[in-house]
Every structure is written in structure tokens, then in C-alpha cells.
Amino acid sequence: MIAQADHRLCALVAWVKAHRQILELSTGWLIGEKDTSDDRLARVVEELGKQEDVIGRIEVKLGQHLIRAYELPTEVARADTSSFSVNHQQQKSEQESLLRYGHSKDKRPDLLQYRQLLGTLDPGGIPLVSATLPGNGADDPLYWPTWQQMVKVIGHNSFVFLADCKPAAIATRGQIASKGGIYCFPVPMSGQHPQLLKQTDEIAGVSLSATSSAVQDLILSPTLKMSEPTVVTLLAINLRVARSHLGAAQ
CA separation (Å) from 88 to 99, 114, 129, 154? Predict the structure, then answer.
């Protein structure tokens, strides 16, 4: 209903009034004229926002309904995070507020900010998973729980999970691979990754520079125009590294 109107809560008043009889018969409630005012609905949303388990269940049911109702393809999904700076004075303690000082992508470290995570289905960019987060945290640990939530929504784990280099840590890739997931991330050329990629390059017989370039092209291409053998090869390389190091850690 809100998608047919807009994001203002007051849009519900007219809709409930037009459907009041069927709503009362189906729920058994007596619905007053002011029961769906924007103030009351805002309080409902506020209370729901405090219950993360409830939000997760609502998110799963809504996503499953979208996929089923519109017969959406579920072969490729992606996730990303971004930060948003605001001109706002901190009214609460830092522990009670999402607005915090952190690494600013807007190059405005003087402003408070919050972060937003979004997981979507390709190629339409249909949102399935979202989270509003404090502005001073790290993004890396978010991708494993995001993949788990997207598996619940999509209903299987055989989709290709795309993202930037933030979830490319061996621990994250190992967790996804241990559950049979498929991912494709550009590996950051820092830490121990260059040496690991060199070893993988020798095993797979694929040029490191070509692999890195091809992965980057794949991530940046929303239509996945690369040939299927190329995609499979890149995924196999990433999975081999993650699984080998997961086994070593165990």
C-alpha cells in the first residue's frame, strides 16, 4: 500500500478508512478513525525498531513475498555499505545514538554520520536486506551476517554474492565457502593477499594481473556480460583459496 502512495505515514489514514470494514472483519479489531494516524504509526515503527529479531523476520517475509509475487531471478545478489553525513548536534550520549564521528567518505570528519547497508537482487536492484548502523564502525564484519540473512530471504545459497573488497578477508570468505556459498570479490592487494594470490596463480595457471582485472570488471558490470567459463574460473579461484585456508585454520 505504501509503495502505491509514498513514504508518508499519513497515507495510511485514507487507505484504512476505505478498507475499514474488511480490516475489522479479518482481524476482529474495532478500528477507530485515529488508530492509524501518523503519530501512532510512528510509535509502532519506533517500537519495532527496538526489536532486531522482529525486524529480521519481517524482512525475510517481505523479501520472500517479493520474489514469489514477481518471480524475481535469484542467481545474483550483491551488498554494499555507505556513510551519510548530517548537520546535526548530538542530543543523546554516543551509546544511545547512531550518529557518530567516523571515517568520512564525504571528507567531512567534522560532521556526524551514520552508515547504511543494503543487500539487493541483480539485475533489478531489488532491496532484500538493509540495516542502519552507527557511523563509526567497521564494514568488514557485516558481510557474513548479511549473506546469512540473504540466504534466508532468497531460500537457497547457490546465488553469486557480489561485493567490493571489504568482505574479501579470508575469515569472511571461509565462512561463506564453508556453507556452500558462492562469492566474487576483488581481493585487496594488502596484507598477506598478494602472496596468497601468487600461490593461487601458480596453481591455476592464470595471470595475477589478468585475474585481478577480470574480477574488477565482473564486480563493476551490473549485467554480468562476462562469459560463463570466465565467471566459473574466477569463482573457483576464490573458493579454492578460502577453503584451503579454512581447512588450515581448523
Answer: 9, 11, 27, 37
Query: How far is Cα 143 from Cα 164, in angstroms, rounded to an integer?
Result: 10
Q: Average of pLDDT values for 47-61?
A: 86
What are the backbone dihedrals phi and psi of residue 172, each rounded to the nearest 5 degrees, phi first? Answer: -65, -45
Put simply, whether the predicted model's pTM sits higher than 0.70 gets the answer: no
The 10 Å CB-count burial string (b at 16+, else e) for 113-126 is bbbebbbbbbeeeb
Average pLDDT score, the chain: 79
Residue 112: all three cell numbers together? 556526524
Average pLDDT over residues 71-98: 84
What does residue 151 show for φ and ψ, rounded to 5 degrees?
-60, -40
Residue carrying the nine cell digits 578477508: 169
Q: At what angle do helices 208-220 and 228-249 cross, to 10 degrees?
A: 110
Query: Helices 52-70 and 143-154 sit at what angle, rounded to 10 degrees?
Result: 50
CA distance 158 to 150: 11
pLDDT of residue 136: 87
52-57 long-range CB contacts below 8 Å, 24 or more apart? 56/149
188-193 long-range contacts, CB within 8 A, separation 24+: 193/168
Indicate whether 38 pLDDT > 60. Answer: yes
